[in-house]
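Regression test attached.
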Amino acid sequence: MSIQNTAIVIDDHPLVARGVAAFLQSHCAFNSVFTADNQAQLWQLVDINHPPMLIVLDFWLQSGVSLDLLSQIKQSLPSTIILVVSADDDIAVQHKVQLAGGHGFIHKQANTDVFIQAVSSLMRHQTWFKPSSYHHQPKELTITAIELGLTVRQGEVLGMIMQGLPNKRIANALAVSEQTIKEHISGILSRMGVKNRIEVITKLRGKRLE
Amino acid sequence: MSIQNTAIVIDDHPLVARGVAAFLQSHCAFNSVFTADNQAQLWQLVDINHPPMLIVLDFWLQSGVSLDLLSQIKQSLPSTIILVVSADDDIAVQHKVQLAGGHGFIHKQANTDVFIQAVSSLMRHQTWFKPSSYHHQPKELTITAIELGLTVRQGEVLGMIMQGLPNKRIANALAVSEQTIKEHISGILSRMGVKNRIEVITKLRGKRLE
DNA sequence: AAAAGAATCCTACTACGGTAGGGTATATTG
DNA sequence: CAATATACCCTACCGTAGTAGGATTCTTTT
């Protein structure tokens, strides 16, 4: 028994939460929208008010807690619609959300009108899982060469670049000429939109390949 | 000649930008707040409207573009107040912002009332730089230039190397000749026992410099 | 069968990174 | 005072990285 036109936004960035809440009220015809920074606040809100129609859940990866929370919400508030918002636009994340029982998934990079569309779809009890319509700049900890639009060979070379190996050693390891490596690298650079291997390394800092 | 009560929010997440904008209007007494996803949109806005009273700038690190943009804004719109918002709670970032001429710095994790305080301080032409009141986990993943046996200047250069900047830009940023940078780098390399900057970057992978 | 893509090779060229070997100025320290 | 360290400047040199414009083979797609 959820109350129409009530929503809760949960995000560990209070400012963002408040912002999204304001947006929901002004553009998506929600009467009352509450915000929560963490799980405790969420359950508190649910206790004192009634179960909301919609929960907008920020998928924050660092603790990996989001999927657990999602399951808990599914169990405690079976009639509440759950929209997951993520800064990561990895398809894998979206898939996990879908498996865990989320009703919709949207990127933070998405346009506001996409957001409005998603919410209105959800309100009609439809789901919202789009195949990553936005510029594909995956930010998860692991990344595959294919996701970057690279060939298999380029992927191998990229791995060695990220290990800091110079062309000569890469060529040696793959038993081809140094020039061939250079050409693979040229392909990688133009595909990734950078100028040199150093930009590749810094761009992929903190990520692991394949 | 900035117009009172006008602000621009620039953030590469449109939803967040709109959210913050809505928040500024409802809680900080701004009449009109515009949003921009990128630099081009910002300059476009500035062209067709008048210079804003306040710019809220998201500090997105990946391209290291923010500090450049900050400088450009300082130059083009000297009377506009600049508040930088960052997801990183690194003191070094805050310091850089201060050096680059920002008027205030605040974490995305900060509470909304802190945000309101910051904005109202800035509107009174005071600055807002707090010593990271938030959970400051001093990781062992951070490393200082002194620990590496480097001089202060070498430390600065190392920081820029780790950001992936080429010598020319480092020289420009520090206002010295490119050759001087090369010599600092030679010092860094021999001290760290590596052959080139790429080995430096991969050797310090996962660590952060202070 | 023809076209397209991927991997391999080549030469030649440019630009950047780094070393070597000079020099000057300043501040700190023995 | 002399010595040391740091930061800054210069020219010259060399090696690596990356681009450009060729070419060959093989596989996959049309």
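Expected vs. actual: identical. Residues 166-168, 182-183, 185-186, 189, 195-197 of chain B lie near DNA strand C (CB under 10 Å from a C1').
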